[in-house]
Amino acid sequence: MEKINNVIITMEHNNKKNTINDLKIIQNDLKILKNKVSKINPDEIIRALDKMMNQYTSRITEIVKYTCEEIFEEKIESKIRSIENCKDQLVLIDDKIKQLNKQCDNLVEKTENMSENIKSAEETVEKISRIERMSRTCR
Fold it and tell me: Between 2-12 and 16-39, two packed helices, what is the crossing angle to 10 degrees?
């Protein structure tokens, strides 16, 4: 671009000799560029693009993997907290069951005591009935 500007400047000064030299330099630069472009092998370009694509793909895969691991770890931690909460609730339920078992044992004991008291009362009633019968007989 600079050389083209130089050509324009040179032409403005009507110095044809310099303009021709500048045009020859530009022509030579264009030939060199043409040779470089013609030497480029399309297979090399494809390989270079494949390499770049693989690098990007592996990097994207790494980012996705890392992100997935973070999400997975958060979910696992959440599940662990849920399980720990369940364990705490199970301990509370177990304590309640133990309390209920003690209450049941106490009720069974009271029921047995009541049965004994009823038997004792029945025996007392029977004794009183006998005494009444005997007292009637004695009269």
Answer: 160
Q: 51-81: b or e for each residue (b if 16 or more CB lie within 10 Å)?
A: eeeeeeeeeeeeeeeeeeeeeeeeeeeeeee
The residues, ordered by sequence, that sit 6+ positions from 4 with a Cβ below 8 Å of its Cβ are 26
Q: Are 35 and 57 in contact, with CB atoms under 8 Å apart?
A: no
Residue 127 is encoded by which pair of tokens? 């004794």
Q: What is the 3-state secondary structure (H, E, C) of the chain?
A: CHHHHHHHHHHHCCCHHHHHHHHHHHHHHHHHHHHHHHHCCHHHHHHHHHHHHHHHHHHHHHHHHHHHHHHHHHHHHHHHHHHHHHHHHHHHHHHHHHHHHHHHHHHHHHHHHHHHHHHHHHHHHHHHHHHHHHHHHHC
CA angle 76, 80, 85 (to 5 degrees): 150
The answer, as to whether pTM is greater than 0.85, is no
Q: Which two tokens stand for residue 36?
A: 């470089």
Least confident of 2-11, 15-24, 71-80, 86-95: 2-11
